[in-house]
Amino acid sequence: MKFFVDTADFDDIKELQETGLIDGVTTNPSLIAKSGREFLPLIKEICAIVDGPVSAEVAATDYETMLKEGRKLAKIADNVAVKVPLTPDGLKVCKALSDEGTMVNVTLCFSASQAILAAKAGAAFISPFVGRLDDLSQDGLQLIEDIVEIYDNYPEFTTEVLVASIRNPNHIVESAKMGAHVATIPPQVIRQLYKHPLTDKGLADFVADWQKTGQSILDAA
Ligand code: G3P
């Protein structure tokens, strides 16, 4: 499973990139606004430190303008994935950009039927929003299962399922069980993945017991 980090905070991206566990980044207009940074220079900076796909979302909603914006974003770096909304115009742009060889991440997906359309439009990634469905007491993970099952029936569908709107480690684990290709994860949820109280306790016990030996590995002959 690939891990993308879902943020536009450059410091968080830099810190997590240094773990060697990050395979890409996703941003969206809300995350860009939250960063307080100028959009295109920030995407350029992120693309310079992250080898994998970096999603940068168009701002327009009409075909002509989204296409122009998408082409401009794609020129920032080879690893830019242009993000477009799952609308009729968004999928037309997806088809046009994909045919030009540009990676496209189709976002704001909330149904399996939408995901089929995105695959037919040649999307590199589909972003179903698990957390926002859960927020409405719907079953976000069921959507992931449905999309993976449908895509597996059609070898011609090369779109990767990029699980988005992740709220907790369980979303990641359950999506991985279903065979989703990518999880895009908020920094604070990535940090939660490491945590288990028994790991902390077990390590503390090992350290204490080692200190009782009075030995040092580095000083040993
Ligand atoms: O960036 C796309 C998606 O991950 C946003 O999720 O619901 O936390 O805004 P959300």
User: CATH class, anyone?
Assistant: Alpha Beta
Discrete helix count: 11
- CA radius of gyration is 20 Å
Number of domains: 1
Shape: globular
Number of strands: 8
**How much of the sequence is in beta strands?**
15-25%
Q: Which CATH architecture would you pick?
A: Alpha-Beta Barrel
Helix coverage percent: 40-55%
Strand order of the largest sheet: 1-2-3-4-5-6-7-8
Describe this structure in words.
It is a single chain. The protein is α/β, with parallel strands linked by helices. Strands 1-2-3-4-5-6-7-8 form an 8-stranded parallel β-barrel, surrounded by 7 helices. The chain is built from 11 helices and 8 strands. It has one domain: Alpha-Beta Barrel (TIM Barrel). The structure holds SN-glycerol-3-phosphate.
Secondary-structure blueprint:
Blueprint: E1 2-6, H1 10-17, E2 24-26, H2 29-35, H3 39-49, E3 54-57, H4 63-74, E4 80-85, H5 88-99, E5 103-109, H6 112-120, E6 125-128, H7 130-134, H8 140-152, E7 160-163, H9 169-178, E8 182-185, H10 187-193, H11 197-213
Helix pairs in contact: 1-3, 4-5, 6-8, 8-9
Bound molecules: SN-glycerol-3-phosphate.
